[in-house]
Amino acid sequence: MSLRRRITVAIVLTIVITVFGVVAHVGNRMLYTWRHIPEAYAAWDTGTLLVEYMKSHDGRWPSSWNDLLSVQNSGSGGQITLRGANAGDTNYGDALVKRVAIDWKFDPARGDQNSPVTRPDGSRFPIVWAGADPNEMVHAYWNASRNTNAPAIRQPGKF
Question: Diameter of the chain by CA atoms?
Answer without folding.
Answer: 81
